[in-house]
Amino acid sequence: MAAKERYVMCPVDAAIALMSGKWKPRILWKLHLYKVLRYSEFQREMPSITHKMLAQQLRELENDGLIIRTMYPVMPPKVEYRLSDFGQTLAPVIDSLVTWSRAHEPEVRAILKRKDESDSV
């Protein structure tokens, strides 16, 4: 089955494909929280992300129409990121994920700890 057909047949796969990536969910969540962020603010909010990875994830989210990149003609250059109208439709999804994760925090932490331990073996 072609990838295009798979997404038509499974809306969950299609939605997750747009939001998946190591940092994309967190980028979307931060933009949902703060509304507008500059590149350096992302780096402060997510100190373990590399410059290359942040640039790549932002570019992919922009290409997919989930975020808007606005560049201002000033010196030094000023670039801001925000959720697009399309990206804002993910707000209830993001809120639901946050609510679920907080409601199940002990279980989630235990599972992630086990995964980290098995990855380091």
Give a brief outline of the structure.
With 121 residues, the protein is α+β, with helices and mostly antiparallel strands. It is 65% helix and 12% strand.
How many structurally independent domains?
A: 1
Overall structural class, as computed from helix and strand content, comes to alpha+beta
Strand content: 5-15%
What's the CATH architecture? Orthogonal Bundle
CATH superfamily grouping: Winged helix-like DNA-binding domain superfamily/Winged helix DNA-binding domain
Instruction: Report the radius of gyration as a whole number of Å.
Output: 17 Å
User: Shape from CA axes?
Assistant: globular
Number of strands: 3
Average residue pLDDT: 92
Distance between the termini: 36 Å
In the CATH hierarchy, the third-tier topology is known as: Arc Repressor Mutant, subunit A
Would you identify the regions where 5 or more consecutive residues have pLDDT less than 50? none
The residue fraction in helices comes out at 55-70%
Order of helices and strands: HHHEHHEEHHH
CATH top level label: Mainly Alpha
Strand order of the largest sheet: 1-3-2
Biggest sheet, in brief? 3 strands, antiparallel
Number of helices: 8
Protein name: Transcriptional regulator
Organism: Oscillatoriales cyanobacterium SpSt-402
Domain HTH hxlR-type: 10-109
InterPro entries: HTH_HxlR, WH-like_DNA-bd_sf, WH_DNA-bd_sf
